[in-house]
């Protein structure tokens, strides 16, 4: 009778060992690096900001994640205004072979985010729609190679890291409760640009073997012209405009990141 019992013990020990090996890494052992643009650096939260012109906020989702998970190390390299070339030329230096977790949001500035918003604010519907279409063409035809370059560089620098690519929200609720501002035609056009950017980014992230986090659904009901904004409309200082506010970072981006790192 003892032999079957010993077999059961061995099987139980084996199962326990397999469970231990397959469990997610402890956050305390993570070496986390946050790359990206202003949506990762936290512009729009009102500060306080550090990093000079990079404007890294203590209210940005990378810092909030680090505060709550207490990784072994945290490098906050995201920078306001960054394009893919900035990640390749400077931010990438924050990565090492020991980096185990990387987050990145990039591509919006390459696709002309600022110029699209400016054009749509200062011009009529047709000019706005045309500018958005130009941005969508760029996103489909030129941006993929730029994203591939970034993702390949991340893999080369940190081949063992989990890499999480976070997207951008739709900007506007259409129709919304805004009594002044952009027309529904302009709002719909801008949202369509966000959709194309999300689709392209998701495709390239998946092709690289990375996890893409699409936050558009989480943002539903919290766009500009909704009753519970997670995104600034035109505001002061102007650079805070059209960026996630504190709720956008803590209730939008952070839970989305928690969901894939938990």
Automatic annotation (TrEMBL):
Annotated InterPro entries: SEST-like, SGNH_hydro, SGNH_hydro_sf
Cysteine-cysteine disulfides: 54-79, 120-128, 178-225
Single GO MF descriptor: triacylglycerol lipase activity
Signal peptide location: 1-27
GO BP annotations, alphabetical order: triglyceride catabolic process
Keywords from the UniProt entry: Disulfide bond, Signal
Annotated protein name in UniProt: Lipase
Domain of life: Bacteria
Entry annotated with the keyword Disulfide bond: yes
Active site positions, chain numbering: 38, 243
Phylogenetic classification of the source organism: Bacteria, Bacillati, Actinomycetota, Actinomycetes, Pseudonocardiales
Domain SGNH hydrolase-type esterase residues, every copy: 34-249
Organism: Kibdelosporangium phytohabitans
PANTHER family for this protein: LIPASE 2, SGNH HYDROLASE-TYPE ESTERASE DOMAIN-CONTAINING PROTEIN
